[in-house]
Amino acid sequence: MPETNPTAPEFELADAHGYTVSLSTFHDRLNVLLVFNRGLVCPFCRRYLTQLRWDTPAFESRRTVILAITPDRPEQVRSYWEHEDPPFPGFADSDHRVALLYGQKVDLFGKGRLPSIVIVDRQGRIRYRYDGSSAPDFPPNETLLRELDKINQEPAGE
Per-residue pLDDT tens for 76-89? Predict the structure, then answer.
């Protein structure tokens, strides 16, 4: 039987500005919304990043940081963040190391990685996961915000 709220795998990545961030940086302080996308050439992924931008204050009010993880090269991520300036960090995972740790699915017909969203609570446990079945298949922000409300209503350590 799978563990109910498994511990999230630790990772360390450099963001678009070259700052190294690890998942444990946020333990005991913030929930983490991990957004694994198909890459910055994907119009659906760029649209989803825009939707997250609009709702960033709602995520922040729920003590949640958004981390966008993309399979692009570091220079592509840096260029996107310089031009689009999302209010949350973006990370290049061009060797797919973190995507593999978190089990991001790949389209078997060769169309690349599928979107995957993971919520990690302040104790470092995976509390929610959404694996898209196609390029545009991302969960609505409202669904994620409801999940965060449930997590935040629980006493610490549950």
Answer: 999 999 999 999 99
